[in-house]
Write a structure and sequence with these properties.
Blueprint (H helix, E strand, L loop, with lengths): L6 E3 L4 E3 L4 H48 L41 E5 L8 E3 L27 H13 L3 H14 L11 H12 L6 E9 L2 E9 L2 H9 L13 E6 L4 E5 L6 H9 L4 E10 L2 E2 L7 E2 L1 E6 L4 H4 L8 E5 L13 H18 L1 H8 L2 E4 L5 E12 L2 H8 L32 H12 L4 H9 L18 H4 E2 L2 H24 L2 H13 L20 H15 L9 H21 L3 E2 H16 L1
């Protein structure tokens, strides 16, 4: 085979293969432009320091000439060339200032740039001095009885155990009877049965935003269909956290840009939503003084019982203004269930009809409109709130990220799914071009989608309406998320690594095919794979399955751990001689794992983002 021809990149002087030229060139151009801007800043600083130094020398000379009664050169005799205005009209003795040396940076210094509307100057920290911590920690008010309204800590812990263990009423009564027999009089135990626990839970529920039950009505086929919706106010949840002295010091209200000095230039990195570009762009659109209060919303149907007979459709909310450790942790400030969407059961009279699919989407959006109603109103005019530090802030509520699998993303964006002409909910890539990542397609926007639906609804016939929406892969439904200003549903949709990678590409495709090729090699080879997993060294946060070849159902987390070890367990089994196709599949899995590693990074730089995109391109094109 003839060697691949390469092209010389004049920006970095490297020979690049044609297949990776486009990605590499874009990355080089971004880096070159960043270096150019940084160099302009450095040159401006040096010019200003040189100017100040020259001014200081002349002013020092003026002072000496005045003291010695020597003539002062006129303007035409001066040799100083400065850009900013200096007033030489008055013969006064100026103080002499030592010129400030040009700022030099050390490798790994961290630069923090705040959004211009915050009025906060940029700062540069030494690497060891840069920390994520509250600037002014607040002391939580003293509370010697945090278990209230329960009568004692003992009663609270018993009730907590019953809740965590999911005890039914009969089991709860048995637990209470046992506690009564064991009590020695140190604490009062007043519970008589499970009803007393429910009374206390109800009393405690008033300390946080409560759930509201509403009935939503959606017409279909000449009938009105009613569904129960349980939800709680999103602004109420946000105000609960803003008023919590343990959580408030960790809020970040002004977006930031962070960069790290690599010895030549500052390289931007992103480690929180409020350090990313979308957060910055949202704050740039707000009125002066406005602060974005950004929500991350997650929705997905799930099984609530071990047999899968009881299903739920929870909506979970997080605040992107909080750091990852709190936002994705457990306890106060983490994810909160803010709604239970109704599940439309299949009806054999309507199943499979496009109008029935549209009806289910309409139910979803009518429910979501109720859940996000406070966001819609407060995104337009904002909401003033006096925070724990005594500062009154003007918050604008926005949806920054929508986290869901592909099926839910199609519902959120009201696109028609994988069988439509334009299946992507984010851009207008044709269905037959999904595997070609070398091209860039027009991004969808909420404004364009709304305009298309409005245009379609103005048509005289259903056929004309359908023709307008079909070419864009949209549904004839009003999207609930259009009402939230400074938010774009197509921009907010996020790649969900859990669903797309571990619960999708790996578990449903790569892993299934790999099991087939291993099974063809015989039982001995299958057993060898299981033994390799058993012998794999223990590692922190890595689940260690002893048998994997019979695994057909597991959660996405287990599939992630299986995929991490698969190359080590099978590289000497699926060889090029023993199984040529299995060997090629293993090479494909290695490329998938490389792309998944980049997706797993919790801190990204402009370079790693470019490299990650390159890894995805390599996976798809090889």
């Amino acid at each position: 085979m003839a060697p691949d021809r390469t092209r010389l990149c004049e920006l970095c002087s490297q020979d690049i293969k044609p297949r990776g030229w486009t990605t590499h060139r874009k990355a080089c151009e971004v880096i070159a432009e960043k270096r150019r801007r940084d160099q302009l800043i450095v040159d401006a600083i040096r010019q200003e320091n040189a100017t100040n130094s020259a001014l200081g020398s002349e002013l020092d000379g003026r002072s000496r000439r005045l003291n010695q009664n020597q003539p002062i050169p006129g303007p035409s005799e001066r040799t100083i060339n400065v850009d900013h205005h200096v007033d030489f009209a008055h013969d006064v003795d100026y103080p002499v200032h030592e010129p400030e040396p040009a700022r030099t940076f050390s490798r790994d210094d961290i630069k923090m740039e705040h959004h211009p509307s915050s009025g906060i100057e940029s700062e540069v920290f030494a690497f060891n001095d840069f920390k994520r911590r509250p600037a002014v920690p607040l002391e939580a008010p003293s509370n010697t009885e945090p278990w209230r309204p329960f009568h004692s800590r003992l009663e609270f812990e018993v009730a907590e155990l019953a809740l965590e263990a999911g005890l039914n009423n009969k089991q709860t009564d048995r637990l209470i009877k046992i506690c009564h027999r064991c009590t020695v009089g140190k604490e009062n135990f007043t519970f008589k049965n499970h009803k007393d626990i429910h009374v206390k839970w109800e009393a405690a529920s008033f300390r946080i935003t409560k759930f509201t039950k509403e009935v939503i009505s959606v017409p279909y086929d000449g009938k009105t269909w009613n569904f129960d919706l349980h939800y709680r106010d999103l602004w109420g949840l946000a105000s609960d956290l803003l008023g919590d002295p343990r959580i408030f010091p960790h809020f970040t209200f002004d977006t930031q840009r962070l960069s790290k000095f690599d010895g030549e230039t500052f390289v931007r990195f992103i480690d929180e939503p409020y350090t990313a570009q979308d957060f910055w762009d949202v704050q740039s659109q707000l009125p002066p003084g406005g602060k974005p209060l950004a929500f991350i919303l997650y929705a997905d149907k799930t099984r609530l019982s071990s047999f899968g007979t009881v299903k739920g459709y929870p909506v979970v909310a997080r605040l992107a203004n909080l750091p990852t450790g709190i936002r994705n942790g457990r306890g106060v400030g983490s994810g909160y269930v803010v709604g239970w969407l109704p599940i439309v059961e299949e009806d054999k009279d309507y199943a499979g009809k496009p109008s029935w699919v549209n009806f289910k989407n309409a139910v979803w959006h009518e429910s979501f409109r109720r859940i996000t109603s406070s966001l819609a109103s407060k995104s337009r005019v904002g909401q003033w709130f006096t925070c724990m530090d005594g500062v009154e802030r003007w918050f604008f509520l926005v949806v920054l990220i929508l986290s869901a699998d592909y099926e839910e993303q199609c519902v959120m964006s009201l696109t028609r799914g994988v069988m439509s002409l334009w299946p992507c909910p984010i851009c207008l890539v044709p269905r037959d071009a999904l595997s070609d990542t070398s091209k860039t397609y027009t991004r969808r926007t909420a404004d364009d989608s709304r305009a298309a639906v409005t245009t379609a609804q103005a048509k005289d016939t259903m056929e004309e309406l359908e023709e307008v929406l079909k070419v864009l892969g949209l549904r004839n439904i009003e999207n609930a998320l259009w009402a939230i200003q400074y938010s774009d549903v197509h921009r907010a949709l996020s790649h969900d690594r859990c669903h797309f990678n571990h619960g999708g590409v790996w578990s449903r495709h790569l892993w299934v095919e790999l099991q087939k090729y291993l099974a063809r090699l015989g039982r001995a080879k299958v057993s060898q794979v299981d033994k390799a997993y058993q012998a794999f060294p223990r590692w922190r946060d890595l689940r260690h399955p002893n048998q994997v070849m019979n695994v057909s159902f597991a959660d996405s987390g287990m599939h992630e751990d299986i995929s991490k070890m698969i190359i080590y367990a099978t590289h000497n089994i699926l060889t090029e001689d023993e199984s040529p196709l299995g060997y090629l599949l293993l090479r494909c899995i290695r490329l998938y794992l490389e792309a998944d590693i980049y997706a797993a990074f919790e801190v990204h730089t402009t370079a790693t983002i470019s490299e990650g995109r390159g890894a995805v391109t390599t996976l798809i094109t090889n």
